[in-house]
Amino acid sequence: MDNFLSVRDLRVHFPTPDGVVKATDGLSYDLAKGKTLGIVGESGSGKSVSSSAILGLHRGTSAQVSGQILLEGTDLLTITDEEMRLRRGREVAMIFQDPLSAMHPYYTVGNQIGEAYRVHHDVSKKAARARVIEMLELVGIPQPDRRVDDYPHQFSGGMRQRAMIAMALINDPGLVIADEPTTALDVTVQAQILDLLQKLQREFNTGIIIITHDLGVVAEMADDVLVMYAGKAVEYGPTKELLTHPEMPYTWGLLSSVPDLTADVEEKLVPIPGTPPSLLSPPSGCAFHPRCRYKDQVAGDLCVTQQPDLTPGTRGPGHLKRCHLTDPTVPNEEEVARS
Amino acid sequence: MTMTDAAPTGPSTATDGSAPLLDVRDLQMYFPVKSSGLIRRTVGHVQAVDGISFQIESGGSLGLVGESGCGKSTTGRLVTRLYKPTAGSIHFEGRDIADLGARQLKPLRREIQMIFQDPYGSLNPRHTVGSIIGAPLEIHDVVPKKQVLSRVQELLEIVGLNPEHYNRYPHEFSGGQRQRIGIARALTLQPKLLVADEPVSALDVSIQAQVINLLQDIQREFNIGFLFVAHDLAVVRHFCPEIAVMYLGKIVEIGERDAIYQHANHPYTQALLSAAPDVKQAAIGGRRERIQLQGDVPSPINPPSGCRFRTRCPFAQDICAAVEPPLMQIGRRHKVACHFAGEIGHHPAEPVTAPLLGVDRHGDPVPGADRNTDIGTDSGYSDTWYDFPGRRIVRDESA
Questions:
Q1: What global pTM score does this model have?
Q2: DSSP string spanning B298-366?
Q3: Which of A143, B105, B186, B215 keeps 20 to 30 A from A271, CA to CA?
Q4: Superfamily of domain A5-222, CATH level 4
C-alpha cells in the first residue's frame, strides 16, 4: 500500500464507573498524500475521538487505544511518547473548531505560531518571527508584519481561524486534521477558509482529514467520505458516489433530513426517528436498527441479532457499507427522488 | 429613472387588505458603549439595528437571515420586547408596543413568545419539566391550579414527548427533546406570534429535521405567526415563505422565497447564497463558482458611510459611499436596497437610484432635483413598484 496514512481496526475505549464507553470501535481507513477524507456523523459518533488518537492525544489518559495507525509505515500507537512529541505538529497537525479557546489569550498570535515552529526547528526567535510573518501572509492576513504582534482577541473569528491554519501548516506537516474548522464561522467566511485550505493543500500536497457534521462542506472538500455511527464506520467511499447513491439507511437519513437550496419546499423533511444511541450499552446487532425504517425488509430479525460487517457496496471499488439490506437501491432511489 | 406613472404612495397594507399581525417600522436599537474608568461616559453606540421595517401576517412566517452581528437576534428580542427599542414602532395587532412599560407588557407576553437557540441554557436545571411548562399558566392565572397538570401533559403530547415525563428534570432529556420542551413552554399560552431564535442550530442534523417538522405542524395547527431567525439559508428557505436578509443592522433585501433565492438583486444576498455549501454539488463533483467577499463584516460601532456593504461589495462606486440606498420595491413582493440592484450578471453600470434620490452618478446632489425622501420607509408592499430594466413604474394588475 502506498497510502500515506492507514488506520486499521482502531479502538478507543474509555473505562467509566458505569462501564466501558466504546467511543471508537474498529475503525479502518486510508488516506493518500494530497487527498481529503471527510468524516461525518452526529455528536458522540466517535469522529473526533478517533482523530485525536492519531495525534496521540489519548496518551496519559485512562483511554484504552488499540489497533494500528500507520503514518508512512510507522505505527503511531507503538512509538514512545518522545517520538510522538517529535512528530506532533511536524508530521501531523490539528486545526480546532474554536480558535478563541485553542489559542492562549496572554500570548501574541506571532508568539504562539512561532513556538510551534521553534519546537521543531533550531532557529533564532528572529528567524522564527520572519517565518511566522511569511505564513500569516500566505493565509491571507493583511499587514502580517503588524498583526503578528496582536493578541488573539484583536483578531476577528475568520482571522483567528486563518492564524490557526498558519500554526498548523508552519512545519509543513504531511497530515492535517481539521476538526469542524468552519462550524463557528459565518458562511461567507467559511467559504474563504475552505478555499484557503484547498489552495494550501494543492501547494503543500497535504493530506487532510476534515471532521464535520455538514454534508455540504464534505461535498465541497472531500475526495472520500467516512460516515460514522456509534463508534463504527457505517459507509465509506468516494464522495461523489456516496452522496449521490448512498446504500446505508443512516446515510440516506442524513441526506434526506437536511433541506437544501433547491429542494421542493412543499415536501416535508424526512427526519431520522429517535435519538443517537448510548455508547455505554449500544443496541444489539446493527447499532442503527432502532432508528432504521428499512429493517423490516431484512429477513428474520437479523438486524437485531447480528452486527453486519463492512462489505463492498455496489458503487465501485473502495465503496463499503455496513448493512444487511440485500437490495439497497430500492429505497435509495426513492430517497434520492425525494431530495 | 423616468416615471411614467404616479410614484408608489400611500400607507402599505397587507395584500389581502387586513392589518398585519406585526408591523415594524423604522426600528432602531443602539447599545451604548461606555468608556472604562470610574466615570463611564458613553463613547459611542453599537448600531445593532438601524431603521428596519417589515410586516408579519397572522399565521405567516418571516425568516431573518444574515451573518453574526447583523442584528437579527436583536430584532427578535426587540419584537418580544426583551429590549426597549431606541426608536421606531412595533405595532402588534394594531397597537404600538415599542414604548410599553413592564406592567403593560405582561398581558402581551401571552401573545408573543420566544424559542431560544440553546436547549441547555434556556431551561432551569432545578425545575421539573412540568413546572417549566406550567409556570406561564400560573403566572398568567389562565387555568385553575388543578388543571395545570393536564394542560402540561397535553402540551407534552403536542410536541411529541411522553406526557408521563412531566416530573423529570431537563438533564434527563437529550438536546432535541429539550428543544421540544422549550417549544411546549412557548406554546403554553397559545401565542399569536412566536420568535424562534436559531431554534435548530444547536441540534444534530438528524434531530434538526424532527424539530423543523414539529414547528411546521404547530404553525399550521394553531395558525401562529413566526419570526424565524437563523443563519442557515436552506433551513430558512424550507420554513419561511418570506425572507429578509440583514447586513450590519439593515435589511438589504426582503421578499418572497423565490424572489430571494431565485432572483436575488442585492450583491450581498447573492454572495451569501453562493457561499452556502450544498450537498447537491457532490453530484457535479466539486465546487460551484462562488462570489468571493473580501474581509470581514465592519464594526457596527462605526459603520461605513452610505451603503454599509460597500466595503466588501464588488460593484461599489462613489455613490455607494456618499448616499445610502433606500429599500425600494422592485417586484410584487420584493424589495432591495442597492444602487446597482440587479440579478447576477445583470447589475447595471449606472446607479438606478440616482434619479430617485436627486443625485448624480457620484452621489453628489443635483441642483434643483427632487429628492424622494419617503422611499423605503414602508413596512409592507405596495401594489406599484419600480421596474428598473424598463425604468418605469409597474402597476400590478392582479392586485
A1: 0.86
A2: PPTTSPPSSSTTTTT-TT--HHHHHSPPP-EEEETTEEE--TT--STT---SS-TTHHHHTB-TTSPBP
A3: B186
A4: P-loop containing nucleotide triphosphate hydrolases (3.40.50.300)
